[in-house]
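Late entry, written up from scratch paper. The run itself happened at the end of the previous shift, but nothing got recorded in the book at the time, so transcribing now.
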Amino acid sequence: MMDWTDRHCRFFHRIMSKGARLYTEMVTADAVIHGDRARLMGFSAAERPLALQLGGSNPVKLAEAAAVGEAFGYDEINLNIGCPSSRVQEGRFGACLMAEPDLVAACVRAMGDRVRVPVTVKCRIGIDDQDSEADLSRFIATVADAGVTTFIVHARKAWLDGLSPKENREIPPLDYARVYRLKAARPDLKIVINGGIETLEAAAEHLAHVDGVMLGRAAYQTPYVLAGVDQAFFGVTSPPLARGEVLDQLVPYVHAHLVDGGRLNSVSRHILGLYHGQPRARQFRRHLSEHGVGEGPGLDVLVEAIALVEGRGCAIAADAMAAG
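Output as recorded:
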């Protein structure tokens, strides 16, 4: 989810669900150590519970990055061993590390020694020809022995050569049953399933077999799926927010972002799928896409988009614009 689940996206998602745990984009350990930490890792307290997802293969650097993440206030440090892109492989991290379980174990052990928050791992069910059930069990056992108790398992293998990242999300078949069997064989571990899950009904079916469900692209492309999460899984009895109510709560955030010199599109690009499947959704997307890009657009563009789809204005936005 690199370039997708930034702080603006997470704030938007948090409006719809207070209980779901959110994850950052994958950030390399080198970037955390040497980069602009405020830009890369800053977040609003409203986003919590929040996990920092790291990429890397150097135990010393990952431990340092994990410690920085804990100091920033993240609730979990997640090591990504699932991304198959060539760029990630060139840096020797992501899915290619499934071929090196001992190295992964050394990484998470070093991370766990530096932080008190949980260190978790996101992986695939296998890579290339190393994708037997025994291979996955061996990888999980090796890394679990280093102290990891939570694994987020994408229920597809990854081909490291010959398939693009997009193809790796679509061509290798999903094998949910393998993840179920992993949980049955390792009841001591928390197993979270990921991959191709698009509805809360499907999530509920998976939860009969595993401990948790991660939504990736479905949560981004059809974000309103998150609006029912708290009612379905966290015991909330109040009704979900309507889409217009979600935007009403987002408006003050957008206003503050613009006042700080930010661009509208930095936030609005994440909300284009909010009305997916609803009347006038195309007009909403088109208005934001055509009029919300660049340095000039202000809160009025978002208000106009809301009016197109909701047939009303926004009192909060009117007050904000009147105040400057």
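The mean pLDDT is 92.
(Scratch paper discarded after transcription.)
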